[in-house]
Amino acid sequence: MPCAVGNDEDLRRSAIWLLGFVPEPSDLNLLAHAAQDSDEGIRSAVVGTLGSHGTEPAVIDLLLNLLDDPSPQVRISALSSLGFLQQPRTLRKIRLLANDDNPRVRAWVAIALGHFSALEPADPATSSVLDQLAADADPSVRDQATEARQRKPLRGTTSGPGEDSGSASP
After folding, report:
1. Looking at residues 68-88, what average pLDDT do you find?
2. pTM of the prediction?
3. Cα separations in angstroms, 105 against 74, 114, 143
4. Taking the CA of residue 68 as centre, how many other CA atoms within 13 Å lie in the half-sphere pointing to its CB?
5. What's the CA gap between 135 and 129, in Å, rounded?
6. pLDDT of the residue at 8
7. In whole angstroms, how far apart are CA 60 and each of 15, 65, 113, 115?
8. How many C-beta neighbours within 10 Å does residue 17 have?
9. Continuous segment of H or E residues that includes residue 37
10. Which among 29, 37, 128, 159 could bridge 42 via Cys, Cβ 3.0 to 4.6 Å?
């Protein structure tokens, strides 16, 4: 799509956004290039479009790379997409952002981790990060961590409804 590589930033941003409506594997090279754009809005549009491409390894790799973006908004967008896609291999890098300088990014770490409850019940590393975020200095981070913890089983409570927890009843 020629508009996605032109000089007009608004047109590039719109073209990249439109690529998400009809995702094609052939677009990934263009999106990888656009992920390096100097314009934060274009990099944010790339994140949204990548989310439309599903869980292909190349897509997940690009989203993981965007977690290192200098823009907090791009990091937040990448966290949102990764939380939605729920790929266990992304957890380690998502958890690393619990130490981000930006409180909105830290809040989105909690939100993203909260989406993994069905895939990673009682994951000790994730529980530890949610504990850390629940004690954050920023109230919005604490609130999001509390909500995420309510969606996840607490450490050590790995059995679900109707499952034997290992304790005997009299």
Report:
1. 96
2. 0.81
3. 10, 14, 13
4. 7
5. 10
6. 63
7. 21, 9, 16, 16
8. 18
9. none
10. 37
- How far apart, in Å, do the first and last CA atoms of the chain sit? 69
Residue 36 is which amino acid? Answer: Q
At a CB cut-off of 8 Å and minimum separation 6, what does 167 contact? Answer: none
Confidence of residue 152 (pLDDT cuts 50, 70, 90): low
Classify each residue of 93-132 as buried b or exposed e, where b means 16 or more C-beta atoms within 10 Å of its C-beta: bbbebbebeebbbbbbbbbbbbbbbeebbebeebbebbeb
**If you average pLDDT over each of 26-30, 151-155, 163-167, which comes out highest?**
26-30
Which residues touch 48 (CB under 8 Å, ≥6 apart)? Answer: 17, 20, 77, 81
